Amino acid sequence: MKVSLFITCMADIMTSNVGKDTVEILERFGCEVDFPDTQTCCGQPAYNSGYLENTKATMKHMMKVFRESEYVVGPSGSCVAMLRGYEAIFRGDPEWEEEAKKLAAKTFELSQFLVDVLGIVDVGSTFKGKVTYHPSCHMTRILGVKAAPVQLLQNVEGVDFVELPHGEDCCGFGGTFAVKNSVISGQMVQEKADHVVETEAEYLVGGDMACLLNIGGRLSREGSYVKVVHLAEILNTVK
Amino acid sequence: MTIQNRESFLDNLANTLGRPRRKTGVERPKWSLSPQWEVYDGLSQDELVDVLEQQCKVIHTNFKRTNFDGLSEMLKSAIKGHDGNKVLAANDRRNKEYGLEVIFDDLKQEGVDVRLWDSAIGTENQVFAEQADIGITFSEITLAESGTITLFNDKDNGRSISLLPRVHVVIIPKSTLVPRMTQAVKQIHEANKRGREVSSCVSFISGPSNSADIEMNLIVGVHGPIEATYIVVDDK
Amino acid sequence: MGIRIGDPSFETRVQEGIENDFMLNSVASAQGRFRGRRGVATEELGNWEDWRSLGEEIRSHTLENIDYYLQQLSDNVSKRGGHVFFAATADEANEYIKEVVKRKNGKKVVKSKSMVTEEIGLNKALEEAGSEVIETDLGEWILQLDGDVPSHIVTPALHLNRDQIKETFANKRGYDKSNTPEELGLFAREELRKDFLTADIGITGCNFAVAESGAVTFVTNEGNARLATTLPDTQISVMGLERIVPTWEELDVLVSLLTRSAVGQKLTSYITGITGTRLAGEIDGPEEFHLVIVDNGRSEILGTEFQSALHCIRCAACINVCPVYRHIGGHAYGSIYPGPIGAVLTPLLDGYENHKELPHASTLCAACTDVCPVKIPLHEQLIRHREIMVEKNMAPTAEKIAMNGFVKWSTHPAAYKLSSKLARTALKPWTKDENITNGPGPLKNWTAQRDFPAPSQQTFRSWFKERQKGEKSK
Question: Which of C128, C117, C160, C126 is nearest to C142 (CA)?
């Protein structure tokens, strides 16, 4: 099975290890992973800010990048939801409608791909520690992926899983919201960080780097010992 | 009666919808789903009574059940239990059938001021209702799911009876039970279609009045009755 | 008062909200209860998604044929002895109502809770015309005594606690009992009962009008709408033009969606359908009935991509799940319609100019869209608002420059690669122990609230490239 990695700009620049882990997990399950080198960003920052028309150039670029791919897999619910969202955005566009539809059909978030496409619910990894999970908003409510990451996580040997209270609440990231409405965002992430600390978990796991950067940044500011890790990092800890 | 500015107002709506005015010919479609009909579908009358009883706990309503012969004692004790010295009842066609006339006579003998709604005396009804401890009505249709009784208010069954007194006592013939609002509105809809005018006031009432406006704390008894008692009567 | 409330500056309002711990605690605890109750009430049905789909289908059909159903409604109201006035604007509605009140010599007006009358500023208009207007919903009465404005569309005094309410009652009405909700409520009952008995006019809103028979219906718990439509001889009901259902059968579905979504009740204590005037021999109910149907900007929403915002049944479920609302409270929105639905509706009804921050007052977390009982895509409509503001050239210049830069960056892989490689070095001056606590430029607002990690030592793509080379050389 041929898989093109959609790294997402965030993981590419900020947390390249998440990309490495994603590649290694996919390869472990027999996927042949390539990396279309001209990929950039899904366009979400500009799209969500209201710059739809400008952002279409970015979207078209990304559609071209992945045109030949069999599958496109990325370690982010939000960015994957955006790629899939091109379908609705280009509906009625004679030139791009089909292209957008095809991309939507073959693009998956990592846990979604493992569970729904490869049929793997236990990746056979081992990770020792008390772990809680933040189900990010776009992953759950836009992409509709709720069970897969939790199932994978709970099946990791050694993981002591504890539910995050009010997990479904937004962490306050919201793209440019975090900068534009910095004060409100600060209140929100504080609340989220409080809930994380409440669980007494050592690790906060998530499937969206942006949210993790936000919550992790707040935890770090408070001097908390909770470590923030991407799901891919845990799934790739093989004995 | 007057209708003002209608044509320009509705023409504008049609215009913004980008089509000609629709004055006739709109059919309500058959909706693609009907989940409301699945609720408590197929339950017997007795099972619906059980549902009602459970729901009464949720809506802070006293639930009592009796047979035809026990109604007299049950009602009297409910009235006494609520300190009912002034009682106002709807001038309901069933008062006689259910023996309420006899009960009221007994109560009067005992010094309770019991009156029937009397359209001939005008607003005096409201004045008495305002002072009354208890208002008594019959439910026309009873919705088990929500613990709701239905009144079709008219000249013999004033809206005030179930509204102004401190306590609302409702007699619920078991045969009036249906699963939920769905069955009740179907009756109203079909009667309306047959050309029967709907009551000037249809009241779906679920227990006593309440409010959660202060700190989301439930206060039972605000502008309407403070207490409610339902008496389910097994049919003869 | 109209749709706009509070300080004109969004920032000031937000700051006021964030500093009001008292209010935020009330809001958070109320949200917690609302959400819990709504969750139970919707899950126990077992097929909530079907209910939502049905709700959406009904609302969509009704709005598509709104001219037909309003015509049917007005015919039926008229047949049953009621007067119908179609008001294109708030002023037209207020003028008409003032005239009716004057003609009836209405000195005392009792009102049940109604958002549309808040929207058109009816109280002020009536008071100017010399009438005493009394809000009778407990929450609204508290606000009226206090000179305050609603912060929530279902429980308008959500932001106040029992001590504040007790104080208001004491200062304004000589109340001398405890701060328990029960005693406070009983006091309101006693005080307002006198007003109900002596009122000349009852004014109500309307949850749903039923086109097939001309009924206006009220969904309430306190019983004040029943009193306002039972005792006064004149009743005036005011409805937004979209608040209508074809038949009683659709009323059932929408009321069920409303009460479960709003307060987690199967039904509220009172669902009351009033049709026209009282009939011959009836004592209760109005001898004169007026239905005022208000446009006030709604028709401009029809036929646009925002049409489904008119599906709203005012349940406030979106407000009750909104994390932004929780952290700033209702008044910060600067509109009587707060929260996600407020952020969508307010610019539509009152223009962007005074509300340009509202579409951005959301993280687009979509919790609102998820709970909406009639499936309004709220977060998508917020994005659409942002797009329109960009189209209208209302976005800040710095943002425009940044976004144009972003598009260039994301469509030119060479530039993207170069900048991503340089990111770590560029941030070096601000980085200490792989962490940035006081970043430059746009990072400043980020690091005001939280740390920012240093970018990876090696970007993913350079790692991948090296790995490929390595494999080849193996």
Answer: C160
Please list the alpha-helical segments (H only) found in C201-338: 224-230, 248-263, 317-321, 323-328
Nearest-Å Rg of the Cα atoms of chain B is 21
**Residue extents of the structural domains in chain B:** 43-233
Rounded Cα distance between B106 and B113, Å, is: 11
The answer for residues whose C-beta is within 8 angstroms of residue C214's C-beta and 6 or more apart is: C73, C75, C76, C77, C78, C79, C80, C82, C275, C276
Determine whether the interchain pair C282/B219 forms a contact, defined as Cβ–Cβ distance below 8 Å. no
Separation of alpha carbons C110 and C230, rounded Å: 11
Which among A12, A54, A189 has the least Cβ separation from residue C403? A54
Question: What is the C-alpha separation between B8 and C86, in angstroms, rounded?
Answer: 9
> Contacts of residue A213 in chain C, CB cutoff 8 Å?
452-453
Residues of chain C neighbouring B160 (CB-CB closer than 8 A): 230-231, 283-284
Domains and CATH numbers, chain A: 2-116 (no CATH), 121-235 (3.40.50)
Q: Which residues of A touch C420 (CB under 8 A)?
A: 9, 12-13
The DSSP output letter for A33 is E
One digit per residue, pLDDT tens: chain C, 474 residues? 689 999 989 999 999 999 999 899 999 999 999 999 999 999 999 899 999 999 999 999 999 999 999 999 999 999 999 999 999 999 999 999 999 999 999 999 999 999 999 999 999 999 999 999 999 999 999 999 999 999 999 999 999 989 999 999 999 999 999 999 999 999 999 999 999 999 999 999 999 999 999 999 999 999 999 999 999 999 999 999 999 999 999 999 999 999 999 999 999 999 999 999 999 999 999 999 999 999 999 999 999 999 999 999 999 999 999 999 999 999 999 999 999 999 999 999 999 999 999 999 999 999 999 999 999 999 999 999 999 999 999 999 999 999 999 999 999 999 999 998 888 888 999 999 889 999 888 889 999 999 999 999 888 988 999 988 877 554
ipTM of the complex in this document? 0.96
User: Which residue(s) pair with B63 in the sheet?
Assistant: B230
CB contact under 8 A, A14 and C464: no
Chain A interface, mutation test: which of C25, C364, C416, most A Cβ atoms within 10 Å?
Answer: C364
Q: What share of chain C is helix, strand, coil (3-state, %, to 5)?
A: 55, 10, 35
Report which secondary-structure segment, H or E, holds B86.
strand B86-89
A213 and C453 within 8 Å at the Cβ level: the answer is: yes
Rounded to whole angstroms, the Cα distance separating C468 from C375 reads 48
| Residue among C328, C390, C453 whose CB faces A14 most closely | C453
Is C67's CB within 8 Å of B10's CB?
yes
Residues of C in contact with B52 (CB under 8 A): none
Determine the Cα–Cα distance for residues A109 and A77; give it in Å rounded to an integer. Answer: 6
Q: Which domains does chain C have, with CATH numbers?
A: 10-294 (3.40.50.10420), 415-473 (no CATH)
Q: What does the block give as tokens for A17? A: 């290890």
Fold of B43-233: Rossmann fold (3.40.50)
Find the angle CA(C397)-CA(C402)-CA(C406) to the nearest 5 degrees: 145
Asked if A98 and A81 count as a contact pair (C-beta separation under 8 A), the reply is no
Q: What's the sign of the alpha-carbon dihedral C105, C88, C251, C43?
A: negative
Q: Do the beta carbons of residue A24 and residue C467 sit within 8 Å? A: no
Q: What is the pTM of this model?
A: 0.95
Cross-chain residue pair C411–A58, CB shorter than 8 Å: yes
Q: Give the nearest chain C residue to B188 (CA atoms).
A: C248
Q: Which residues contact C145 (CB under 8 A, 6 or more apart)?
A: C168, C169, C172, C173
- Are A179 and C362 a contacting pair at CB < 8 A? no
Q: Partners for A (CB, 8 Å, 3+ pairs)?
A: C
